[in-house]
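hi! just following up on the protien thing from before. the input was this:
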Amino acid sequence: MPSTSSATVFIHQSTLLLQARPTTTKLTYTYNTNKKNKRGTLAVKTFDPVSGACFRLRTRKVNDLNRILRALAGMAGVMAGTSTGAEIVAAASGSAE
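and the predicted 3d structure came back as:
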């Protein structure tokens, strides 16, 4: 399972996957802390079992966390079938920041 290189790439790929398969795609957030240096790491994974597509990102940056949560929280409408998600893809590509 390869990791993506940046939060922008992860958001873009995840939103495209959620648009293509909104009912089967799963989002997973995992937060781990290191007791030695008291630093946390967030791992976010987008997985679709039907197509086998999987995107993963690990980050310690709060800005990346905020961007991911804002973008993927907006995809709830796509998963529910009430939105197309086009505005989220445009924002993830940097045109509406």
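Residues 7-20 form the longest helix (14 residues).
The CA atoms of residues 42 and 74 lie 19 Å apart.
cheers
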